Amino acid sequence: MSEQKVKIFKPKDYETEFNPEAYLQFYYSSKALDDGTRLSLFALPMFAYLIQTKVPENLRQSLIDIGAGPTVYSAISFRDVVKRVYLTDYVEKSLTMLDDWLYQRTPFSWERAIHVIARTEGLHLKNDKEVIAVEEKARKLVENGGIFKADVHTENVLILNDQQQHPVDKTYDIAVSVFCLESACSTHDEYKQALKNIISLIRPGGYLILGSVIDDVIYNSGMSLVGDSKLFTLLDLDEEFIVKSMDENGMDLTTMKSYSLNNDGVAFFMIAKNS
């Protein structure tokens, strides 16, 4: 009997094949976080703390998350650091889920992730009221910023239409992109161009926070209704290539902080753009 061929989806398939609800359940539900905490829930609060303590308030007003998918942990992590958060993604279904979160229509609970982020910050949230207060702060930042469609393969990244209010910021103090570029790019040249596009959104002296899957070519985006894993390709990256790409695109390597777990296959970087 021949083995069934496993279908692996490519960047072009995200709009039709990616299921944001399945992704959240697989990675950020209470059950998923009981099984193993995501490194992003540690790295982002730590980088948020560093920026809050070293950057004057007037230079940390805005944050844009490129390729947030259906996730809101960047807004939660930076709720006390910036004034405006822009959440962006390419997939319409993910943008709908972000809208549902903003207007409290979503059934997905971020409670467990909020507890993990708070613990990283040294906080112990004692009750539901305190959890809700954290989430409301994050919502307020996204209300101040917005939710936008984005395509890292376009020069301006954001895809704006005349029906929606445009961002009040033209460049941003902080750009966050977690597990996006390796999912969206099929070649290393594509990756370098997409990274350049993201960096162009950052003001001189502003910060890039980049989360990357290292040395892997595939990931599980969540379980289908029949219990099958839905797999997507990843561009095979190593830390040396990522750092070189940042250097070539005007980032100041002397400012770089990185955080990685070798056995986890994930690395996070925070780096300032040359002034």
Automatic annotation (TrEMBL):
<keyword id="KW-0489">Methyltransferase</keyword>
<dbReference type="Pfam" id="PF01234">
    <property type="entry name" value="NNMT_PNMT_TEMT"/>
</dbReference>
<dbReference type="InterPro" id="IPR029063">
    <property type="entry name" value="SAM-dependent_MTases_sf"/>
</dbReference>
<dbReference type="GO" id="GO:0008170">
    <property type="term" value="F:N-methyltransferase activity"/>
</dbReference>
<comment type="similarity">
    <text>Belongs to the class I-like SAM-binding methyltransferase superfamily. NNMT/PNMT/TEMT family.</text>
</comment>
<dbReference type="InterPro" id="IPR000940">
    <property type="entry name" value="NNMT_TEMT_trans"/>
</dbReference>
<dbReference type="InterPro" id="IPR053384">
    <property type="entry name" value="SAM-dep_methyltransferase"/>
</dbReference>
<dbReference type="GO" id="GO:0032259">
    <property type="term" value="P:methylation"/>
</dbReference>
<keyword id="KW-0949">S-adenosyl-L-methionine</keyword>
<dbReference type="GO" id="GO:0005829">
    <property type="term" value="C:cytosol"/>
</dbReference>
<keyword id="KW-0808">Transferase</keyword>
<protein>
    <submittedName>
        <fullName>Uncharacterized protein</fullName>
    </submittedName>
</protein>
